[in-house]
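Quick check before the chapter quiz. The format below is the same one you will see on the exam, so make sure you can read both the input and the output lines.
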Amino acid sequence: MSNVEVSNIAIAPNAKRLLFAGFMAILAAGVGFSIRAGILADWGAQFGFTAGELGTITGGGLTGFGIVILIGGLLADKLGYGKLVVLAFVLHLLSAIITFAATPVFGAGGEVGKHGAYLCLFWGTFIFAIANGTLEAVVNPMVATLFPNNRTHYLNLLHAGWPGGLIAGGVAAALMGTTPEHKGVRWEIQLALFLIPVLIYGLICLGQHFPKSEASQKGLSLAEMMKDIGLLGSFVVCALLGLFFKNDLGLSGAVAFGIAFLLWLAVGGFTKWSTGAWLLAALLVAHLLVGSVELGTDSWISNITGNILSTAIGKWLFVYTSLIMFLLRFCADFIERKIGLSPVGILLTCAILACTGLLLVSKADTTGMVMLALLVYGVGKTFFWPTMLAVASDRFPRTGAVAISALGGVGMLAAGLSGAPGLGYFKDRYAGEELRTANQAVYEQYRAGRPTSFLIFSAATGLDGAKLGEVRNTPKEKRAPEQTAVAAADLQGDRRTLVTDAMIPAGMACIYLLLLLYFKAIGGYKAVHIVPIAEQQVAQAKQAS
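Here is the expected output.
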């Protein structure tokens, strides 16, 4: 039997059906994410939100995703995958109801109505993300279990659903969205499209038997599964949880990080103070950066490229990069087996391309230049997420669903806590600085009512979302002089934001290079499999004799 035939062997007869169900579940997440990215400007114009507020709404969705992946990873092997799929289905429906309530709540008027609309959008997006996170806690370990001989390939196939959803949502946003030339379809109708793949994955999963992870089949306890996470890996996770408690739940810094510290100690005690694997901790740090650059950038990229060229073109360019990503994720097996790049080699190459692509986009000013730059960026971001999950599954099978879910959780938390809000902050900061430098009087007229804050950076005052929306929806030739100044400052702010964003994949490239050198030093990258205790004892006895 050839290596290709062996790599395609699944452990269950319904493996391909479950793979497709997982594909549709991730596609639903992509559709919702993509359409939200396309209607950010609509929310800003309708409700008067700043870029920072819009970034926080988007970020809340991502952090919710991250929290639930972490919890789901701990529970998936014990509760069973089927129950979690049902829960996710119900939450997807609930998220739509809460989000759509934003417009009628805003009708109350004044700051009360605006704040109420903000809460509807934030919590609706948050619950949508909880549904997505619940599903991701299921489908990632499920596919890694179903196809143990070629995880990189099949996890990339599974996660082709993400760019597939971005394409579907991006096309909808491009055809139905508001532009200076025509009034678009209401954002509620656009967003409702994500319910179509939700219904499909729900029907596919009816009556199906779900597998158990390799660790669960071997009878490993949760404490044993978490030993490779240990103190090192849990430190990364708990640090992000502390930031979540502070930023999203509104707790004071002392209380938020105090709770995170207690959780870290709890993990230490639960794992009998296992240090954990340094390699897995390094993967968690790298995936923290993956979430920030991939999902954080995707939250804003159509908005930014639309600013460089036009709103309509920006939305189509988002579809263009997603199509590149979708097609290439079917090629991971070819790249690994025919070209000979290891999973870590693929990640290093992607990080270099992503950094280069973002820098090129920041300088581009024509459609052709932007398309070329986005081609480089699109190729770069393609393999990050699923290949990282494959590496964790290959090297740490003892963790069951825990390590792979920890990676997903860290990536989503980072995207929500630093990626989307960070880009929103820098966009506000740079645009405000550019307009204030160019024309102080116009800046005073267009400045936002309150500043934007982000992590340890000083507060920055950006531009009022409603007023900026008016400028963007006014054709260039009809803009007043002060509107032209605002548009120029906004564009320059976008360019500077992309340069800052490019520093993230640059850091990732450094980590992947060190990992590549490590694997070369130990004889190359290889998948690890669990050896039952009885077999270990036999091997030790032979060595002793």
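If your answer matched, good. The longest helix spans residues 481-521.
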